[in-house]
Specification:
By secondary structure, this protein is of the alpha/beta class. The protein folds into 3 domains: 5-52, no CATH class; 57-199, Leucine Dehydrogenase, chain A, domain 1 (Rossmann fold), CATH 3.40.50.10860; 208-370, 3-Layer(aba) Sandwich (Rossmann fold). The protein has helices at residues 5-15, 20-39, 41-45, 48-52, 101-117, 138-152, 171-185, 205-222, 240-251, 274-286, 292-298, 327-335, 351-359, 367-370, 373-387, 393-415, 423-441, and strands at residues 57-66, 72-83, 89-95, 124-129, 161-164, 232-235, 255-256, 258-261, 264-267, 301-304, 315-317, 340-342, 363-365, 416-417, 420-421. The structure holds NADPH dihydro-nicotinamide-adenine-dinucleotide phosphate.
Length: 445
């Protein structure tokens, strides 16, 4: 048995060499669980911590495909099936050149706790490839997706493992992946979520992560008798999560003033309104262009190669990628008056940035709680597929809203420290208990 977080982490680092994102994700969880585990030693005796950090299965494979010039390209494919104590493995696929085993293990590990928080019957997993869809034709993306699924299909299924989208995997990619699965397996089933509306998808799934993160923000602000009305909001990213977070902030009377992509950030002091957001959606989802175009179109500032965190705001919603807020940026946010940081992305704040938020006792909503709306509606998509029905937009949105309120409540119950709510601790403890208890019930597996 380990006598400290440091000794546990030494072992993690030795057993998983070079996987720095995975080490970071494990540290964040174990550090905030440690006190709770000392008070509940039965989890330690059953070695739940040692078991929960080890994926049940890791699948790695070759993805050969042909580009438009007729040349053969080879990418790496992965699926990390992390934990199935609560249900079939569930979690997205990421297509991005930075993808490696460490990143997918960090995401799969986070997913286990996130899915537990939703209270829906879903285990945790994550997968993807170092394939870069940027600059590829639709035909190339299809060729790649077909090759990727040719291997992945033998490992997944509606009762086993149900992938969804993530960075670089949106409606277009899910369509190509689903088509190939159906062709090889000769079955039309709910094996992927985020599907098109007329072939098994759920209403509100595209909106769910962004909307859910903003519903979570609303609940956090309520604890201070505040709302989003009139608040200046920084948003990073300009993909799926960022777009729908922007939409919901506008709906609730807030003023989003920034967006970004991996090339830079725009700052629109007048606020991004519905018309401007429609432009961004067309730019990113159809033309697949760069956010710089926004600055040209609306005559606002563009910061090449920068992130938006040095602009004064009330609320910050990082919605792009991991480690996009460092310690200095966190200090700048707090100094400039930011009172609430809510993670639409997975692990966007690095550990030192999180310390800055916690030490300054501002509202900090960790990704595994705040962005759980996406997987929650994926869970609802699975239910609708199994029952062969579809719920209306209002029904799904209401269920999403209730789930986000309940996740917030669980964080409050387990994260209260006097008058301060430590949402990180709350989310980790609440997520852990359900998975750990299910693992105890199911024996040494
Ligand atoms: P998209 O691919 O739709 O958008 C990603 C956005 O982030 C793009 O604007 C992209 O810019 C930017 N980005 C990606 N990598 C980097 C980087 N290294 N540096 C700076 N910017 C970057 O993905 P999503 O919106 O779906 O995902 C965003 C985040 O939300 C991820 O962390 C994801 O894991 C998380 N998430 C997503 C869920 C979902 O349902 N989609 C569910 C829960 C969490 P560019 O166009 O230049 O690549």
């Amino acid at each position: 048995m380990y006598d400290s977080v440091a000794s546990f982490m030494d072992d993690i680092v030795n057993k998983n060499p070079g996987e720095k994102e995975f080490h970071q994700a494990v540290f964040e969880v174990v550090d905030s669980l440690w006190e709770f585990l000392q008070d509940h030693p039965h989890y330690m005796y059953a070695k739940i911590l040692e078991r929960i950090v080890e994926p049940e299965r890791v699948i790695m494979f070759r993805v050969p495909w042909r580009n438009d010039r007729g040349e053969i390209e080879i990418n790496k494919g992965y699926r990390v099936e992390f934990n199935s104590a609560l249900g079939p493995y569930k979690g997205g696929l990421r297509f991005h050149p930075s993808v490696n085993l460490s990143i997918l293990k960090f995401l799969g590990f986070e997913q286990v706790f996130k899915n537990s928080l939703t209270t829906l019957p879903m285990g945790g997993g994550k997968g993807g490839s170092n394939f870069d869809p940027k600059g590829k034709s639709d035909n190339e993306v299809m060729s790649f997706c077909q090759s990727f699924m040719t291997e992945l299909q033998r490992h997944i299924g509606p009762k086993t493992d149900v992938p969804a989208g993530d960075i670089g995997v949106g409606g277009r990619e899910i369509g190509f992946l689903f088509g190939q699965y159906k062709r090889i397996r000769n079955e039309f089933s709910g094996v992927l979520t985020g599907k098109g509306l007329n072939w098994g998808g759920s209403l509100i799934r595209p909106e769910a992560t962004g909307y859910g993160a903003v519903y979570f923000t609303q609940e956090m602000l309520k604890t201070k008798n505040e709302s989003l009305e009139g608040k200046t909001v920084l948003i990073s990213g300009s993909g799926n999560v960022a777009q729908y977070a922007t939409e919901k902030v506008i709906d609730l009377g807030g003023k989003p003033v920034t967006l970004s992509d991996s090339s830079g950030a725009i700052y629109d002091p007048d606020g991004i309104d519905r018309g401007k957001l429609a432009f961004v959606m067309e730019l990113k989802n159809v033309k697949r262009g760069r956010i710089k175009e926004y600055a040209k179109k609306y005559g606002v500032e563009y910061f090449d190669g920068e992130r938006p965190w040095n602009i004064p705001c009330d609320v910050a919603l990082p919605c792009a990628t991991q480690n996009e807020i460092n310690e200095d940026e966190a200090k700048t946010l707090v100094k400039n008056g930011c009172k609430c940081v809510v993670e639409g992305a997975n692990m966007p704040s690095d550990p030192k940035a999180i310390n800055v938020f916690l030490e300054n006792k501002i509202l900090f909503g960790p990704g595994k709680a705040a962005n759980a709306g996406g997987v929650a509606v994926s869970g609802l998509e699975m239910s609708q597929n199994s029952m062969r029905i579809s719920w209306s937009r209002e029904e799904v949105d209401e269920k999403l809203h209730v789930i986000m309120r309940n996740i917030h409540e669980s964080c409050v119950v387990h994260g209260k420290e006097g008058k301060f709510i430590n949402y990180l601790k709350g989310a980790n403890i609440a997520g852990f208990i359900k998975v750990a208890d299910a693992m105890l019930d199911q024996g040494v597996v």
